[in-house]
Amino acid sequence: MTDFVVVETQPIDHDISPSPTPANLVIMASAKNRTRGTKRITHVLNTLYDDAQENLHDEQNFTIWSKETYLEQLQDTTMKLDACSVSTTSDDKGGSSLIPCSRSIQDSWMKSCNGVGELAVDLAENVVIGAFEEEANSSSFETDSSQSDNDIRQEWLGTTPFAIEYRIDTQTAGHLDDLIYHQRTIYDSILETPYDPKHWIELCQCCLTLGFADIAAAAAHKALILIKASLNLDHGCEGIVYPSNLEILTKMTLGERLHTRSPTIIEEELKNLLLICYSGLLSSLLACGTFWEGLRAAKEALSIFPKDVDLLETRNMLRDYFYERQNSLKAGAADKVDESLILMTRVGEIYQVQYPWLDTRLNDRTPALVRELNDNLNSQICEIKPIILGPLRESFDVGPLGIFAMRDIDEGESVLVDKCITNTTDLHPKAQTYCDACHASLLAPHTLPMQIVRPECCEEVAFCSQDCCSTATSGYHRILCGKDWSWTYGRNGRPKSTGLAPDPMWRVRLFLRMVAVYLADTQSTKTKVHPLQHSLFGRMSANYSLPSYPDFPLTHDWYYYENIGAPTRILMTLGINPFTDPHWTQEVIQTIFWKMENNANMSNINLSTTTLPSSNSPQREDSTGEEIVTSINTNYLFLNHSCEPNISWRGPSSTPFESSDSLEGINGEIIKPGSATIICRARQKIKKGEELKISYIGDPMGTSDNTQLEGGRQERRRWLRKWFEGGCGCSICTKEAKEVKAMAAAKSGP
Ligand SMILES: C[S@@+](CC[C@H](N)C(=O)[O-])C[C@H]1O[C@@H](n2cnc3c(N)ncnc32)[C@H](O)[C@@H]1O
């Protein structure tokens, strides 16, 4: 169902809360016209405006736009209206927004609007009648006549490289709109009855056909949780402790759908659904290229349905693909078969794309957000600014950001010291070898035993200072305390990773920490801001690319357990309902994962060799003391890359004998080894207004000897593809690209 909400926001200081207050809710209308046609939407919205004016004109709680303003808004927004999904926006100058949003968001807004909300619903229903009658005779779903049938809609090519030609054929044959419509109706059914596994299985099948195999796998996972909870299956679902009412809710929903109270009939249905669910899950994992996890799921499925031909066939395909990958990796590695090679056999791969049904506005970074970011940065030296200068419109995306000098900067000057609490390593905090907040070493001589601060609430964590302890206990730790998170330090059957690669579970632990920071903040400020619009997640950009046939972009690592199983378990443990909460759909979770991947900083530390281990600081059994700290440094992440950087940076230090100068912050404070703080200094004189740029890849020219990266300049440029596939825009890369082009032209001859 495509629902529209028109809101006018009142001026609010640096608040990007999406919840319209009763005072700013102008019109709420359900335009159930399922249309992509711009003309039709404009027509419906014109009707809505007229009706709303009639109904609301003497309501003092509502502000009505002038028709002129309204139509101006329409011009900017109608093209986006086919993105039927959750979208919210507001800005601190009292801007106005026309928002397509889902029924469940409306419902939650209605709840927060109390009496006035109900009035709005009544009025909205009046409004809808007008729109409905208009639409009654039209076909239920219409494509924009301006779109040619032969155009390939890249954004709908999916996340999986698997069978992409099939999806191109589907689009060429003109079936895409039907599939999109089908997907919307399934989401509607889920909103109505979220505990019916059948809808989640249908979503799995539909997303699989659309090529979004990761979302398909997540839908199957949700169905599996409901079914397993109801059948009391031993397997559990990746360790999830089921809420006690999940079984009752699922059985009640099935009973209502089947018009029965018979436990036998309901159980029969659950078993039927279980088989179809496994089949969808295995196909999704196959399409995501995570053959090893697919084989594990197949083993579980076949232990229940040993003779099912469909399951056996998919299992065989998973096995064949797994061996094919393993053999080719072995052949490439010659005699060097090690843990990293085993890890490579177990990872899946998908494209990093924006989900076309998730409203793009959720990814917008508005001028209001940039002002908030600069308030937090609180620097006299540098500021966060859009790179592309142009007219900034208040509730619209400002484009790529960077950090710029606010005054002339001297060579060697500290420009940014970015301490952060969003960090993780493989070491369990219980070991108390590092500060749970900033990750500074708690080992002598960096922190003396009497300096260690322990919170009153638990014995799980320790801190390097009272400051860190207060930050944690009044914030994220409040959300996490008293719950068992030790499973996030497990490896889900994988060997320990070696070298520069951190264990893939870093994503899970960083996600957990970030969700806790977000929840602590929104709870203390009593705001209901969507995670993607909260400054913590909203500040980060992803490296999206479109699967453009026939030149496909890079694929990115993806796991069933890390990307779906573990985050679902985290949310459920934190009391978030992944079946009903529109803020925490798999699309939102995966978007956060993409953002983390594009912005996380990784640094090697070796705490054990830098200090004498003290008796009260146990290491994990298999810990070598060498760890990789992964952190989201919330200001540093705005620095762009250049192969001619004017800024040098250093992450967590492990060496206590370095010159104290390199460990000093801007105000002379000492940054302790192991801390996830990043210090940035000017490599040269920098003029006011110049952009500050770092190197993402160590020595960008690949000429220094003591670097861990191999392969020189060419290899380094290849590494850059992780952040930007279109190529780095610096002058060296531009020159090299021109030379390559000229050489290719010369080779191909006249
Ligand atoms: C860590 S973020 C840096 C901040 C980012 N510009 C933003 O708007 O949030 C990395 C992203 O910045 C962009 N970027 C950074 N350096 C670049 C370069 N040299 N050339 C092209 N894009 C770059 C890419 O989109 C990359 O995915």
UniProtKB/TrEMBL annotation:
Matches recorded under InterPro entries: H3K4_H4K5_MeTrfase, SET_dom, SET_dom_sf
Source organism phylogeny: Eukaryota, Fungi, Dikarya, Ascomycota, Pezizomycotina
Signal peptide boundaries: none
Organism: Coleophoma cylindrospora
Domain of life: Eukaryota
PROSITE patterns named among the record's database cross-references: SET
SUPFAM superfamilies given in the database record: SET domain
Record's protein name: SET domain-containing protein
Domain SET: 380-697
Any GO CC annotation of this UniProt entry: nucleus
